[in-house]
Amino acid sequence: MIELINVVKQFGSFTAVKNLNLNIKQGEFLTLLGPSGCGKTTTLRMIAGFEEPTGGDILMDNESLVGKQSYERNVNTVFQNYALFPHMNVFDNVAFGLRMKRVPKNEVAARVEKALEMVQLPQYKDRFPRQLSGGQQQRVAIARAVVNQPRVLLLDEPLGALDLKMRKQMQLELKRLHKQLGITFVYVTHDQEEALIMSDRIGVMRAGVLEQVDTPEEIYARPKTVFVADFIGEANLIPFFVEASAGGWLTGRLANSRIRVPGAESFIARQQVKLAVRPEHCTLLADVPEDLSEDDLLAVDLLERIYIGATVKTVVGLATGETVHVSTSAGREIPFVQGGRAYLSIDTDKVVTLSE
């Protein structure tokens, strides 16, 4: 539905977006995710028409949007600061865009009522923004955007000003609203968990470059770069020297053990790579099981125990000096003794091998 082709955006000598190529599908929930200054909001603003690309093209339904004013594009934007009119009540805020388009009065009333029902606020139509909570104001801003029946809804960190509990509530509300409306959502956030929860696909950006676009499951389980592995969720990134490569498997030594991990055919012997290992794919053992030897496990030092409610994170040290985080269900972890010794088992089938 929307296609960005070799899009570049420069501000003076600074390049905010670099040769970005992206296809956004009809009806999907696509999230642009990355740290501050990575170019995600600039990309959203170019789709909205608030910024013009320095180079490349942006198409909607195969028609270029470049040069079109924001009001000429069938998109609406929801901002982090809501941008509600303080002197207007909820009804008038939502009706504003329709009145500007000179929609008939009876149709305005019907569409506003429907929009407020969608965001579950019909009883608040006579209140003013100052009389609403942050979450309610955000819902009014969303109603004002969807009442115009855009084909695309652009959301620029819309939950950033809310507290944690309200953010989680609104995440579910937005997912429900997306299914109900059936329109395309393009969402910008720096919150990794938010992106994983809400999105059909995620585009991870760094320094103006789109590093990977995929489903939340694929991005978490099979990151394509060290940055994506480190930015999405938590990953142990362990240096690994490849001794042999054959049939999609790499063999080499890690601390005191010789291990075999999946690896693309492009990886070769004598190459230094990074192993991305999720904490939940690591297991700590207090002793060596009878069916294994110490050569099958990694001897580690217990450094720190961190209680996180349902899970416990244990930080351990390898003989080579690297630290590894291990995630265990609370109550199932081994006894922790600061500076004590244990054995680490890694689910090597779940390891992702990445170029440094």
Automatic annotation (TrEMBL):
Q: Do you know which NCBIfam families this protein is assigned to?
A: potA
Q: Name the PROSITE patterns on file.
A: ABC_TRANSPORTER_1, ABC_TRANSPORTER_2
Extract the Pfam families matched here.
ABC_tran (PF00005), TOBE_2 (PF08402)
Native organism: Desulfotruncus arcticus DSM 17038
What protein name applies here?
Spermidine/putrescine import ATP-binding protein PotA
Gene that encodes the chain: potA
Alphabetical UniProt keywords: ATP-binding, Cell membrane, Membrane, Nucleotide-binding, Translocase, Transport
What does the record give as the reaction this protein catalyses? ATP + H2O + polyamine-[polyamine-binding protein]Side 1 = ADP + phosphate + polyamineSide 2 + [polyamine-binding protein]Side 1
Gene Ontology cellular component annotations, sorted alphabetically: ATP-binding cassette (ABC) transporter complex
Enzyme kind, highest EC tier:
translocase
Extract the SMART domains matched here.
AAA
- Report the residue ranges that make up the ABC transporter domain in this protein: 2-232
Q: What is its EC number?
A: 7.6.2.11
What's its job? Answer: Part of the ABC transporter complex PotABCD involved in spermidine/putrescine import. Responsible for energy coupling to the transport system.
The UniProt family comment states: Belongs to the ABC transporter superfamily. Spermidine/putrescine importer (TC 3.A.1.11.1) family.
Cell membrane found in the keyword field:
yes
Q: Which domain of life is it from?
A: Bacteria
Example GO molecular function: ABC-type putrescine transporter activity
This protein's assembly is summarised as: The complex is composed of two ATP-binding proteins (PotA), two transmembrane proteins (PotB and PotC) and a solute-binding protein (PotD).
